[in-house]
Write a structure and sequence with these properties.
By secondary structure, the protein is of the alpha/beta class. It is built from nine helices and 14 strands. α5 crosses α6 and α7 runs antiparallel to α8.
Length: about 325
């Protein structure tokens, strides 16, 4: 897959099969669009597939006070789109000036002239152009004028719920990893860096790595204790992750992401870890003291091992 950081870097295709959108999460609904794109491309000799997406996310520009959190870093999005078999990915800068592009200008100047689109595949209820004025009806009208066909993919339902990035963000905030991972079609994860902590966990036999998300715009799952798979170099290690404040340890209002790796004793400071959130085990709780906290962590570890299918190395 070829990646372009501005639409001006792209040479128009002679037979472009295209889609456009933010594709945050590259979730199950997105995959249906991408699979359809790939099938159309494979059926037409000389056709190439292209996705036009944007950075930053348009809502970050148009609604700056919303502090939107994302499901993917750009690197993660690129990896997932490449795995989907896309030929070309254009990541065009989105700013106030671009947001004023009318729907007609977007179709004529960008889709047709810059991309060379001959077949356009869009998701259900897709809107584009200034004030989101463009719709499927507009595309059906413009298609014959500018020589392209358009196809709308219906909303993809799972458990009678239409999959969307917004619903996945909501599930993550609720700690509902089952629903979030089902909608995504993969286990939600984040790249992190291990930073200095206060080493409090060591005093009760549960040393933790204090992790900082590498992508500050990425969604952090809701407060709680999670069963996680931890990528460290070429290894994947089971772990339990605490997200939120530590009411038993201190009164600080700072929320932390701390992970205890099972059967692992190496120093991790400064290392990169990939956290994949499998299931939420419990809420954050305040205990009467450190001994009570330790006893709960021992119970948590048993549950986490069961979730991950990992036996106790001491057994």
């Amino acid at each position: 897959m070829k990646v372009y950081r501005h639409i001006e870097e792209f040479t128009p295709l002679s037979l472009g099969v295209a889609t456009t959108g933010t594709f945050d999460g590259v979730h199950q609904g997105h995959r249906f669009i991408l699979d359809r794109l790939a099938r159309i491309r494979n059926e037409q000799e000389g056709a190439e597939s292209v996705l036009l997406t944007f950075d930053p996310h348009p809502r970050e520009v148009l609604q700056p006070g919303t502090h939107l959190k994302l499901l993917n870093s750009m690197d993660e999005k690129i990896q997932r789109l490449e795995a989907a078999g896309l030929d070309h990915l254009i990541i065009h800068p989105f700013d106030r000036s671009f947001s004023r592009t009318s729907s007609l200008e977007f179709v004529r100047n960008i889709l047709v002239q810059k991309l060379g689109v001959r077949k356009l595949v869009i998701g259900y209820d897709h809107h584009f152009g200034r004030n989101r004025e463009g719709s499927f009806a507009h595309l059906k009208e413009y298609g014959p004028l500018y020589g392209f066909d358009v196809e709308e993919i219906p909303a993809q339902d799972i458990d009678q719920v239409a999959v969307s990035s917004t619903k996945i963000r909501s599930a993550l905030k609720d700690g509902d990893m089952g629903r979030a991972n089902l909608f995504l079609g993969y286990t939600y994860g984040a790249d992190t860096e291990v930073v200095h902590g206060d080493r409090m966990g060591r005093t009760i036999g549960f040393p933790t790595a204090n992790c900082r998300f590498a992508e500050v715009r990425k969604v952090i799952p809701g407060d709680g204790v999670y069963a996680v798979q931890v990528g460290h170099g070429d290894r994947v290690i089971g772990g339990m992750c605490h997200i939120g404040r530590r009411p038993t340890v201190d009164d600080a209002k700072e929320s932390r992401v701390e992970v205890h790796l099972l059967d692992f004793k190496e120093d991790l400071y400064g290392e990169a870890l990939r956290l994949s959130f499998v299931r939420r085990v419990r809420d954050v709780q305040k205990f009467e003291g450190m001994q009570q906290l330790k006893e709960q962590l021992e119970r948590d570890e048993k549950v986490v091992r069961e979730v991950l299918g990992q036996s106790d190395a001491a057994e």
